């Protein structure tokens, strides 16, 4: 399949395909397109976002079956082959012969790359080593000074995962403020996000900025674009006094307040109707676990708000309405809300 055709066919399954590089499109055409079409025949949509418990179980099953099939003696050898240079050639040959890509992604309607990264996170023994000691933090700073941002090299030296060392260095590289956000910090954050969004918009559509640049008003951005992944480490650097995760959380809270400003969602009859809609929609999902719920879609149940807002409202609802909710499963909580709380809210409305 040529590149343009592959991109066009993948667009049916991946809405943001236009932002994906040509090399990634070629890989996806080989690894994912046939799988996606098979899932479509079965009426199963391609998924993104957080992995469910069921999907994690399927990954474990796929890895164990592949190890059994090939005789490779550990998941670490299979997924972190570079750590075992003496076995590298044999493992690569076995992975090719037994179709590693197809086997590892069996039964999971997601891009292969995401499944592979998830498997690496699940089976990396260096991922679960607890807090960094003061000595480790000093070592990390020293290794970063020597090797720059070569996190693969640094992770090998520290026996920690790539992601772990990168995130920890981001956290300790400068003096981080953990108190309430000042007005100046918030303005820096808003400016940094706006700058990043302008660049993204300009890259995606040159013409979209012409009218914006002539106006002094705030950027008007489609709701979907606000949920795209932002380069938080870059934003962290622009803010200067906050860790990237703090920046992300603060931006989400700003989004929530902006989107709900002026909406009396949880007052009077509107509040009752919002709770009723939320309970009904959750009941209709028939989800066994919170991770199986598409909170993005559910946001429509109570208004044009971020999913974190919906999750917060659900939490308050279960805590205030469901007795002994800590001892109940997710589905039992939903059933209780539907059977006991819903009639009461409808009568009140």
Automatic annotation (TrEMBL):
<dbReference type="InterPro" id="IPR001005">
    <property type="entry name" value="SANT/Myb"/>
</dbReference>
<dbReference type="InterPro" id="IPR053078">
    <property type="entry name" value="TTF1-like"/>
</dbReference>
<dbReference type="Pfam" id="PF13921">
    <property type="entry name" value="Myb_DNA-bind_6"/>
</dbReference>
<protein>
    <submittedName>
        <fullName>TTF1 factor</fullName>
    </submittedName>
</protein>
<feature type="domain" description="Myb-like">
    <location>
        <begin position="124"/>
        <end position="172"/>
    </location>
</feature>
<dbReference type="GO" id="GO:0005730">
    <property type="term" value="C:nucleolus"/>
</dbReference>
<dbReference type="GO" id="GO:0006363">
    <property type="term" value="P:termination of RNA polymerase I transcription"/>
</dbReference>
<feature type="domain" description="Myb-like">
    <location>
        <begin position="173"/>
        <end position="255"/>
    </location>
</feature>
<dbReference type="InterPro" id="IPR009057">
    <property type="entry name" value="Homeodomain-like_sf"/>
</dbReference>
<dbReference type="GO" id="GO:0003682">
    <property type="term" value="F:chromatin binding"/>
</dbReference>
């Amino acid at each position: 399949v040529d590149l343009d055709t592959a991109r066009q066919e993948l667009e049916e399954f991946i809405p943001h395909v236009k932002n994906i590089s040509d090399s990634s499109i070629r890989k996806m055409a080989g690894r994912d397109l046939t799988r996606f079409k098979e899932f479509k025949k079965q009426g199963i949509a391609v998924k993104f976002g957080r992995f469910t418990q069921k999907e994690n179980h399927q990954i474990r099953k796929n890895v164990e079956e592949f190890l059994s099939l090939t005789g490779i003696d550990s998941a670490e050898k299979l997924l972190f082959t570079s750590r075992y240079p003496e076995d590298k050639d044999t493992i690569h040959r076995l992975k090719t012969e037994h179709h590693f890509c197809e086997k590892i992604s069996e039964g999971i309607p997601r891009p292969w790359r995401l499944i592979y990264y998830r498997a690496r996170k699940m089976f990396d023994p260096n991922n679960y080593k607890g807090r960094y000691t003061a000595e480790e933090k000093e070592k990390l700073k020293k290794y970063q000074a020597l090797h720059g941002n070569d996190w693969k090299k640094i992770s090998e030296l520290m026996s920690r995962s790539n992601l772990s060392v990168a995130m920890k260095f981001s956290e300790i590289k400068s003096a981080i403020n953990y108190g309430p956000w000042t007005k100046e910090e918030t303005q820096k954050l808003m400016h940094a996000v706006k700058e990043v969004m302008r660049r993204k918009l300009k890259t995606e559509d040159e013409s979209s900025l012409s009218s914006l640049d002539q106006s002094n008003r705030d950027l008007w951005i489609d709701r979907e674009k606000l949920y795209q992944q932002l380069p938080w480490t870059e934003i962290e650097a622009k803010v200067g006094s906050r860790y990237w995760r703090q920046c992300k959380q603060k931006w989400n809270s700003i989004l929530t307040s902006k989107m709900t400003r002026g909406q009396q969602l949880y007052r009077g009859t509107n509040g009752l109707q919002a709770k009723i809609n939320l309970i009904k929609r959750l009941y209709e999902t028939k989800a066994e676990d919170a991770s199986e719920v598409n909170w993005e879609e559910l946001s429509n149940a109570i208004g044009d708000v971020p999913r974190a807002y919906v999750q917060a409202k659900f939490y308050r609802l279960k805590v205030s309405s469901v007795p002994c909710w800590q001892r109940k499963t997710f589905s039992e909580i939903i059933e209780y809300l539907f059977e006991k709380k819903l009639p009461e809210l409808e009568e009140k409305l």
